[in-house]
């Protein structure tokens, strides 16, 4: 007769095995939660970066301090857990079946890296300023200003030209200049300069500049292009010119300097003059708008129908000297330069239209 004795396990051993099993479960749980957290962090990171870039410099110091401290603490706590998770995965007895097929997406997403500064380009046969501007996605004026081109035809094969990274101006900082003074010089909002991600500052909190550094000014416009003075065309104002007919050639409506040219987002010519001189009718015609009839950004304005399919608009006027329905001769005073409506300083906004089409005034002015 055989007698079986019940084997009694050491309580300490049982406790150790249970504790080991619990630790393994806890390690697996935290590893899964950690991977989920990393995935969520990557998804939300771009949103945070975009927000910080928009107001770059304001939150730099507290963000760095808090971020580095947080990363250090998270790394300190998760290092042993990740180590255990890797070891436990290495000891796993699961084997993937060989009958399954793993499909991979062979399409590679191509990321186009934006240009962070000025690059050089050697003009090839058949190149034009227009084709080069289109190739590098900048405006024709940007290339003309950057390379001091007298005209859009002033290039030849083999010539080396500079290509700014974006439509606008590239400015070399002088002693005493600030982001605000540079923005004012090129008629842009200072925030546009700050938002350009490749501009750097000697102090990221105050956006201080260092003499000699290069600053990209997106959408900046070259200042101080002095126009021909049209004073000899000034005529004494008449209440009504009677029967008139357009000459077909436009004169400069005011003296001053070009503060902004015609571009796709600015469909007219801005002529700045702080002395607020008289504005002249660029050609003969009938007044169809006079004053500020709505809340539009043009402010006080005059529109003249020249009877040949073309109309001209004169905006931001400080005063209007004509009335709707009257006729004017080429060179008649129609008002004075001002800064009414959406304007940051005394200037004339001048447009030429054909029906609903906006035309570049510089193609018509004589």
Quick synopsis:
With 366 residues, the chain is an alpha+beta fold. Strands 5, 6, 7, 9, 10, 11, 13, 15 and 16 form a nine-stranded antiparallel sheet that branches. The chain has a three-stranded antiparallel sheet with strand order 8-14-12, with no helix packed on it. It has a two-stranded antiparallel sheet with strand order 1-2. 28% of the residues lie in helices and 19% in strands.
Using brief descriptors, characterize the structure shown.
3 domains; membrane; nine-stranded antiparallel sheet; disordered N terminus; alpha+beta; Glucose Permease (Domain IIA); LysM domain-containing protein; elongated; transmembrane; Cell_wall_metabolism_enzyme; metalloendopeptidase activity; three-stranded antiparallel sheet
Identify the CATH homologous superfamily of the largest domain: Glucose Permease (Domain IIA)
Structural class: alpha+beta
Architecture per CATH nomenclature, i.e. the level-2 architecture of the largest domain: Distorted Sandwich
The portion of residues assigned to helices is 25-40%
Instruction: Describe the sheet with the most strands.
Output: 9 strands, antiparallel
Count of alpha and pi helical runs: 6
CA-to-CA gap between the ends?
128 Å
> What is the ordering of alpha helices and beta strands?
HHEHHEEHHEEEEEEEEEEEEE
How many strand units? 16
Mind telling me the C-alpha Rg?
35 Å
Strand coverage percent: 15-25%
Low-confidence stretches: 1-5, 89-112, 226-238
Per the principal axes of the C-alpha atoms, what is the gross shape? elongated
Average pLDDT metric = 79
Task: Output the CATH class name of the largest domain.
Answer: Mainly Beta
Overall structural domain count: 3
What is the third-level CATH name, the topology of the largest domain? Answer: Glucose Permease (Domain IIA)
